[in-house]
Amino acid sequence: QVQLVESGGGLVQAGGSLKLSCAASGRTFSSFAMGWFRQAPGKEREFVARSWSDGSTRYTDSVKGRFTISRDNAKNTVYLQMNSLKPEDTAVYYCASGPRPGVYDYWGQGTQVTVSS
């Protein structure tokens, strides 16, 4: 049974920082793609960032230069460091795991991030 558990969300002022964590269990973490997605109220879920087993990363344009995805394979954990947060970053953030980038078959329950102006 694969499980993904996010943590680290909260309320922060614009310009502040948060670091999200996603602890994975039930699969060989290092071999899988890990992604972060978010869904704001009334909007579709959107891709934020991903990390592949070869060490490559990718970001959506709106977070480039502000967010950093990283992974610790020894701890089976993926992180999302979010700096210079903006009110438009407010959303529920989900982590996901899959066999390759763009193909995600397991999702976490989400963690709320709220950025006040």
Question: How do you describe this structure in short?
Answer:
With 117 residues, the chain is mostly beta strands. It has strands spanning 3-7, 10-13, 18-25, 33-39, 46-51, 57-59, 67-72, 77-82, 91-98, 106-107, 111-116. It has no helices and eleven strands.
What does this structure look like?
With 117 residues, the chain is mostly beta strands. It is built from no helices and eleven strands. Strands 2, 4, 5, 6, 9, 10 and 11 form a seven-stranded mixed beta sheet that branches. Strands 1-3-8-7 form a four-stranded antiparallel beta sheet, with no helix packed on it. It is globular. The N and C termini lie far apart (40 Å).
**Range of strand content:** over 45%
- Give the topology string: H per helix, E per strand: EEEEEEEEEEE
Instruction: Give the termini separation.
Output: 40 Å
What would the principal axes of the Cα set say about the shape?
Answer: globular
Number of helices: 0
Q: Main sheet, how many strands, which sense, barrel?
A: 7 strands, mixed
The tally of strands reads 11
